[in-house]
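Let's sit down with a protein and look at its sequence and fold side by side. Which protein we use is up to you, so please pick one and set it down. Label the sequence line and the structure token line clearly, so we can match residues to local backbone shapes. Go ahead whenever you are ready, and we will take it from there:

***
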Amino acid sequence: MTDFPTTARVVIIGGGAVGASSLYHLAKAGWTDCVLLEKNELTAGSTWHAAGNVPTFSTSWSLMNMQRYSTELYRDLGQAVDYPMNYHVTGSIRLAHSKERMQEFERACGMGRYQGLDIQMLGVGEIKPRYPFLETHDLAGALFDPYDGDIDPAQMTQALAKGARDMGARVLRFTPATGVRREGGEWVVETDKGEIRCEFVVNAAGYYAQRVGEWFRPYGGRRVPMMVMSHQYMLTDEIPELEAWSRETGHKLPLLRDVDTSYYLRQEKHGLNLGPYEKGCKAHWVTPEDSMPDDFSFQLYPDDLERLEWYIEDAMARVPILGTAGISKVINGPIPYTPDGNPLIGPMPGVKNAFEACVFTFGIAQAGGAGKVLAEWVTRGETEWDMWSCDPRRFTGFVDDDYCVAKGKEVYGHEYAMHFPHHEWPAGRNKRLSSLDSRLRDAGAVMGAYNGWERANWFAKAGDDLSEKATQTWMRDGPWEPRIREECEAVRDSCGVLAISGFTRIKVQGEGARDWLDGMTASRLPSVGRVGLAYFADSRGRIVTEMSMIPRSGGEVDLITAATAQWHDDELLSRQAPDGITVTDHSEEMECLLVTGPKARDVLA
């Protein structure tokens, strides 16, 4: 290739919706010397077969931000880049079967209001006028999202790519990346057509992200925490009643989500598109007998409708016109999942000048916002929104393939589940146990998982309700309430010992360590022998983490920070530590106990 670029500022590996959006937003930020590599045609991975739903609703602040931004971007994208796009803003109705679900919806409405979204709660009587084909007799209410809709994923991706090219960025199709290496402080991205030297690399390889991630392991990387699920949706034949209604009203039905049953139902022309998230789900490419192929471009899995039978029947009872139509097409394709279902967007753990924008379960809805976030990480080193829930560093060294498969299947099978504050999901447990684990359990500890560590949430007594159902509440007065009250009163009046298993323990030492840390924080370090809480801020003064600091007489400082912040906080310190100062993680080597209360010193005497 005579015009093959041999240098670039950024190389993006992967030409799906997220990769194209990342390129587009980098170019918008003025970084036009960027190249996107796609081994086949754009959209060849999960993008081409995606259903294309674009909600704003989420119970996560960061995901709602990304999805809100995406809807705003897509609304004007076609005109902005002069590329035709099919984007239908139909609104959506989420059905609630219980008061607990209505409480979840109220919380989401509150978040939406603070982001400028007019998401609305609906009473049962307000549902049918918006969706006349729906059975509502057993519902508690609903949520209406006026911004929801659907988009053509291929057109959207091509529009983003065109916009990026028009600003000067490059898109190289049918140019597979084959590896990376470091030379002279730069990345060299290898392809079958030549090599590209660059400052930054982005892994946007979708369900191939783990394979691409292996190239970075010699440079400090880890195995990308992900697995691949089979997700099916089906399209029906045209339904005369639906066609007549659409012609009469001049618009489509709102997208319907029966989240307590676990499916969505969307009007597709004059038929319907049904997409369940079934509990009897199936993972792919997790065994030697079902290994990942080198190329799965524009391919699907065989139909497997038997495992969806219950959901199809339930949907037909909810929307009876669905049962009058035949199935015209079934799409069964791969969708990547992380262990918590959120994507990976941000710095690649342990690897300098490498980033991840991959493992998107809802990539079409989130691609617009993800491109913005990725571009901010690369160009500024920080993001406008709090994006910790998507930060790749939230998964640490305990994560292995078995954990990813177990958690991925759990998340998929509970895609629409309510995430109650006191509920602990059972898959992937007991990955990291402290030296006190058996003693805590013998004392009645009810455990929770934090960055793989098992930690006591509360201590039960005989007769306490330890069922999963008891935790499925938004209220605070579960079976734990009297036990926690007893603990609080004991600490208030006497003394308590808290085992904070899994809290990250870091030691900073070397000449000038104390002064350096003092300059890093937004507060003063405590004196030797005392403990103080210190806050670390970004360039805009926003808190990025907090750590308890314990200065020692020898000049070193012990730090205690959150379990899930282990890699984030270690990297925050290690990458900025001057010569002569070392940062060492001792989390696996020591336990941490907190002794507190008016009689604490008597206990320790």
Notes: The chain has two domains: 7-380, 504-586. Residues 506 and 585 are 4 Å apart (CA to CA). The mean pLDDT is 96.
